[in-house]
Predict the 3D structure of the following.
Amino acid sequence: MNAFKKSKPAILGGNPFPSNTWPRWPFVSEEDIRRVTDVLKSGNWCRALFAPDSEESMTVRFEQGFARMHQAKYAVACANGTAAIEIALRAAGVQPGDEVIVPAYSFVASATAVLQIGGLPVFADIERDTYCLDPASAERYITANTRAIVVVHMAGRPANMDAIGELAKKYNLVIVEDSAQAHMAEWQRRRVGAIGDVGTFSFQNSKNMTSGEGGIIITDNPDIAEMSYSLQHIGRKKGRPFYEHHYACWNYRLTEIQAAILIGQMDRAEEQNRKRQENAKYLKQLMASIKGLEMLPDDPRVTNHGYHLYMFRVDREQFGLDRDTLVKALAAEGVPYFGGYPIPLYKNPLFQEKNFGVNGFIEGKTIDYRSTHCPVVEQLCPVTMGFAQNVLLGTKENLEMLVETVLRIQKHAYEIAKTV
Ligand SMILES: Cc1ncc(COP(=O)(O)O)c(C=O)c1O
């Protein structure tokens, strides 16, 4: 068993875990260092130095591999996951003034990307058991101006793509899958991202594949792929002169150095995903012994969970501490945690005060976000938290230590509640 025995929670003065207790993230191999060094020495750090589809480009090689990995025909890498959503929405035909349904429980980029292209995010509620968009709630928000749905596969768990697909068909809507947290996740044996019209991923530092920053768009639609290529490349088109620009847009290119890192990340990703699945199963068994922590039910239609986070809820009465206090106690222990999104997206000052700048402001078309109300998100925000994905890359002993730690915190709940 673990050599590091503890008697008192760290928040009450006990020792925190040594920093090497939990698997380090991100992981770097000697092979990664060699590949990055080769790119550095080559001086070819920008993909624009290569012909658009040249396999000498690390970015092209990564795009091809990532598309295969996600059962998609095309992939276009870009600067980050936020830019990827913006590009995907625009490439899929969303126009200024269009309404886009977005779940109110997500990272803010799922909604701000809509504003960045002049669209209006319309917030819908989530399902209690999945934290993903509730199709019934989404349907209630559809109007004649609705053009698209941004679906978020929250924490790596795919949303109900059957129901959302039917909704899109019924109302002729575009589906953008924000899969920033869901690399390799599967709904009914289909990997997320290209189930809908277009999907996006993030490679920011905490994500299950990372290059510090980075993003990608995947799709089976050649027109969306072609437009996405232009939109990350200052409006250039493949096969046209370099200084001929077709669209007003940004430089959102990924660098060759980032792509070299991502090739190594991709090589290890499937094995790490399998490990997270296995550990999540064991953690669920162990956590069943903790009174007051509620875990999410499994669903056989989720044939592969991405496990970016291991999410659960804290019942203050049953557990003895509220979510925020448990988060503080785990932070003091040095456990990699996710504190939960504290408020529904629409409660951010950005929406309450409509600080949209020049974007998302179409005269005569606006929404009063102060009257938006998604009861499930409002109920779940104060009680939801999770463990970070690298906790699931450790040993069984790591997980046992984690659960012992939570139980120890619970045992001292009364003292902890008095001190915070
Ligand atoms: C659900 C979701 N969407 C979008 C993003 C934005 O990705 P990035 O940070 O790479 O811009 C993130 C992560 O940060 C995310 O978790």
